[in-house]
Design goal:
Elements: H1 2-32, H2 36-41, H3 45-79, H4 88-97, H5 103-121, H6 125-148
Length: 151
């Protein structure tokens, strides 16, 4: 139980900094919505925006890893036996089978894991731009299950 609590606390702290990054990115996007005159006055906009986007994606990657490992620990604790599940996908499907995660959310989580894997193996500007739009929803999904699956 103690390991599960520690894992939960670690994940909650990571999600907090992840949410801060999401909020900062959304704030900088609002600046980008200004008219051309104001945007020119903020000459570093593109550079700062790209740095915040990339930072947010890195925090996303870290949180996804902590998230699926937390679900694995939660499953092991609730089933009262060590698990041989080694992949995030298998963990999520097992949690769905145990009715800890809905089928719809399991599908979303698997897509989130696929997105995470794409970012960590190949860096493409288009992937980063597609992912940054999905990230606020992914944050909410992870936070939802951390709140539900309390130790």
């Amino acid at each position: 139980m103690e390991k599960l609590k520690l894992s939960n606390n670690t994940l909650l702290k990571a999600l907090k900094t992840f949410n801060e990054a999401v909020q900062s990115f959304e704030d900088i996007e609002k600046i980008g919505g200004w008219n051309d005159k104001n945007r020119l006055e903020f000459s570093n906009y593109e550079k700062i925006r790209d740095q915040l986007r990339d930072s947010t994606i890195q925090r996303f990657e870290f949180c996804v890893d902590l998230f699926w490992k937390y679900i694995k620990k939660y499953l092991e604790f609730s089933l009262k036996k060590p698990s041989e599940m080694n992949t995030p996908r298998h963990v999520v499907l097992s949690a769905c089978k145990a009715e800890l995660i809905s089928e719809l959310d399991a599908s979303k989580i698997i897509n989130m894991i696929k997105d995470r894997n794409q970012t960590s193996h190949i860096y493409k500007e288009e992937l980063a731009e597609d992912l940054i739009v999905k990230i606020p929803g992914y944050y909410k999904l992870m936070y939802k299950y951390v709140a539900i699956l309390k130790p």
